[in-house]
Amino acid sequence: MPAVSDELLPLSRIAFVAERHSVDEYLETIYFLAFPIGEYRPTTQGSSTLAVRVAEMLGVSRASAGEMLKRLEAEGLVERGEHKEAILTAEGRKLAERAVRRHRIIERLLTDFMGYTPAEAHEQADLLGDTFTDEMVERIEKQLGEPDRCPHGWPVDTEFEQAENRELQPLADLEPGTSAEIVRLAEHDGSLLHYYYDEGLVPGVTVELREAQPAAGQFTVRVDGSERAIGEKAAAGLFVRAA
Predict the structure, then answer these.
(1) pLDDT (tens digit, 9 = 90+) per residue, 54-82?
(2) What is the H or E stretch that residue 14 is in?
(3) E strands along 28-170, which residues?
(4) What is the CA radius of gyration of the chain?
(5) Per residue in 157-171, pLDDT tens?
(6) Rounded to whole angstroms, how far apart are CA atoms 30 and 86?
(7) What are 106-129's pLDDT values in tens digits?
(8) Whole-Å CA distances, 199 to 77, 100, 178, 193, 202
(9) What's the sign of the alpha-carbon dihedral 227, 191, 32, 48?
């Protein structure tokens, strides 16, 4: 049977993969990049910069990320903003939110019923996301008792997530001497996610920023009565609520 050309099918319906990443994963990544300011607008100026950030988060080449962004724009899922940055359209946002919600529910299925660790669940959910229909996800959610959050603290309800965004900030942005509760963990970097759990930097834990040296890329925090040094990337990926 001859292969069907990608051009014959809309991107929202095909299993197109750029270096093994699906359209949904790209939309999720753009969605995540918009998080720090609590609205659907990446904190970047210029499409090339966004392509770099997407590429870094997905572990793909800049060229592949740029090509996918062009495809998403052609399909009407992203558009260019005032500074030519790529932002989600209404349809893109709808698909991104659906993908995000599905991912978080599958993570809970894997941790609550299948014995996966939270870090493992994220990796497996990436692989399984496209195999679950919307009806299956709804049934899973019901069987789970309609959980509020994924294992890493991200709300299943994306509207609530956006409202809560205004209350949170990265640990790296705190003033030294400030105590805060960890609410969410950045989850796109599997190695970093494993690091958080290994170090006990998980949702619900209170952490105090003792010292910040952004120029050196190092921060000192107090957790459970002891001080430890963490890198800038780790500090930027811990989303906290100041006490």
Answers:
(1) 888 888 888 888 899 999 999 999 988 77
(2) none
(3) 78-80, 86-88, 169-170
(4) 18
(5) 999 998 898 899 999
(6) 8
(7) 999 999 999 999 999 998 998 887
(8) 38, 26, 20, 10, 8
(9) positive
